[in-house]
Protein: N-acetyltransferase
Amino acid sequence: MAIEVRPASVFEDVRTLVGPKSPGANVCWCLSYRIPSKLNNELRGPARGEYVAELCRTGPPPGVIAYDGDEPVGWAAVAPRSDTSFARNRKIPHVDDLPVWSLWCIRVRPGHRRQGISHALIAGAVEFARAQGAPAIEAYPLDNGDAKVDLTMAYAGLRKNFERAGFTHAADTTSVLAGHPRVLMRLDLR
Structure:
């Protein structure tokens, strides 16, 4: 299996990975951290997908997609922190004034897990941010140690996977997800 990670500019592939089975459903579409809370609550049903379609058409794309051949098998959301709710998040600190990028969601489709795709997505998101001129990239994964994590809540990633990708612990946070503390991990790209 040769996994290739590319910018998420093909809306149909993004829909396959983060869209709902029913077009009218109010699922995340990976918008929860990307847009202000008020807008996130106002966008309902198909309007959520239309918003993401516009993100795919304009630059930079809203993340990266892992492909196994032509099949989209994984997603990672990555954008400048200043363009996300992490810019104003009181639970996740700012380490310094660098215009860092945030990597906040990693999702691998069922049937494709435990094949290294999340590692490929992290590497692809890093390269995408670097190509866009990011001086550093941050993630806010779960610090779960050896504890099991519910797959639904594992979207933030796991600390050990980011350490494996060269990220280092930059700060503790007061954010907790699925009963596990989140930590701020960072990789300098300069």
